[in-house]
Amino acid sequence: MSTLKALLFDVDGTIADTERDGHRVAFNKAFVDAGLDWCWDVALYGRLLAVSGGKERLHYFIRDWVPEFDAPEDLESFIRQLHQAKTRRYLALLEQGGIPLRPGVERLLKEARAAGLQLGVVTTTTPENVTALLGSTLGMDSLGWFDVIAAGDIVAAKKPAPDIYQYALDQLNLPAAQCLALEDSDNGVLSSSGAGIETVVTVNDYTRQQEFAGAAIVVDQLGEPGAGFEVIVGDAGDATLIDVAFLESLFAKRQSLTG
Ligand code: XBP
Ligand code: MG
Question: Which of 77, 142, 181, 231 could tie 8 with a disulfide, CB 3.0–4.6 Å?
Answer without folding.
Answer: 181
